[in-house]
Amino acid sequence: MPEISPATADALRTxxxxxxYRTDGVRALLGRDAHAALTRGEPEPAFRATAxxxxxxxxxxxxxxxxxxxxxAVTAALxxxxxxxxxxxxxxxxxxxxxxxxxxxxxxxxxxxxxEGDGEWWVLSDLDARRQERxxxxxxxxxxxxxxxxxxxxxxxxxxxxxxxxxVQALHASRHARAVTATDVALxxxxxxxxxxxxxxxxxxxxxxxxxxxVAGRRFDLIVSNPPFVPGPARVxxxxxxxxxxxxxxxxxxxxxxxxxxxxxxxxxxLGSWLHVRGEDWPDRVRSWxxxxxxxxxxxxxxxxxxxxxxxxxxxxxxxxxxxxxxxQAGAWLxxxxxxxxxxxxxxxxxxxxxxxxxxxxxxxVVVEDLPDDLTDPLGPEVAGWLDRxxxxxxxxxxxxxxxARLRLTDGVLLERYAxxxxxxxxxxxAAVARAEGPRWRHEVDEPAAALLAGCRGALPxxxxxxLLAFAHDRPVDALVGAALPxxxxxxxxxxxxxxx
Length: 501
Description:
- The chain has 18 helices and 19 strands.
- It has helices spanning 6-19, 23-39, 44-49, 54-64, 71-78, 83-88, 142-150, 168-173, 187-199, 249-257, 282-287, 306-316, 324-339, 380-395, 399-403, 447-455, 462-473, 477-493; strands at 69-70, 92-95, 98-101, 104-110, 119-125, 156-162, 177-184, 205-208, 220-225, 262-277, 294-304, 342-354, 366-370, 406-409, 414-422, 425-434, 442-445, 457-461, 497-499.
- Strand 16 and strand 17 (442-445) form a beta hairpin.
- Helix 12 runs antiparallel to helix 13 (324-339).
């Protein structure tokens, strides 16, 4: 396990900075094609691109590509840190007449698109060669990046990174929080996170213990967690993914407990998976976990069938799926899912906000829905916007308050018309409005609704637009109000319409 002293961290930081071992520096050295090849698992183009890369080339080959580099080259690249001291800290190991990486040490950059600016760090984790060890510590992977991009970056006082692993979420939180606390049950993960924070010269409180036990009695403004959420039998093959509880029981318990650890108005942002059980409605299943006094937005990003679910996580662990061990594990896993009548496994985002005693008091808003299409933009700004829009809708809960408001279409909203082919040619079949940025929320509309939306430019209150529309289409105002306001509320919540101050 790594053990980095302040002096070692300072020396290593100096060497990495001098060599340009940052995300931009590595990308520039590799070039677009070699970088793309490396992300596909094809290292040879990267070896070629780094051949004349000087100190940065040495570090990339040794730390990212797994090469053994000569003693003299490593000594020059790491100065003022000696290879021997780096090995004593657990970062390198002797290999023949040279040095090889003992841990994964890579740059990690964040471009969140928010007001907090970019972040740039180095992250320590286990090498892939150790992936099948029970206490393996994963690095910057798809799940950690997904959670980081889904977390709102509003400046806050305190943040809890629950189950920190190598510390990625705590790094991101350090950009917009006054104080960050990180917890984990795995001693190896805590050691990795401690080394990551030391290398990046960050003061993060690290606590040892399961789930919320290390922070009993404490509250935070923001809690982020990529918990061990992989549904399966009650066992722990790998600490980073398995909770030791059956199915989605651990996630359900966490969701029930989290609000007690949030300040009034505080937000929790999680990743999670839930079971689709035959005869049950999955939104009702997840909704049943929620305690009173919270706004909640649960968004399902994807679903997998049981076989794909098991195969995906076995591949993630680096198992040979044809081996006797992997087949036995898969068989037991699939048997358990079948016995529980599991038809699919959902994966997505959970946003919770405690409203007890907060300025956002009112009837809790609980929405459970599927995310439309593939998500290409970060979800964090959308989460922050969703919470703001929920506040606005609660403040305009009555029909009169909503009718007195001025609204405008969000930039980039499109009106789509579609038709079906028949004997007489094309016949108009309907229309919809959709967002062109962020989640591609889409709502079917008829002609009066399309006309109403076209008039939402922020100049007139909604009441006057409805009255004009009722006159133009010769329909009773009350009937149009009854039909329009539920749709308007949904479009505000989905960000197609935004309030005008």
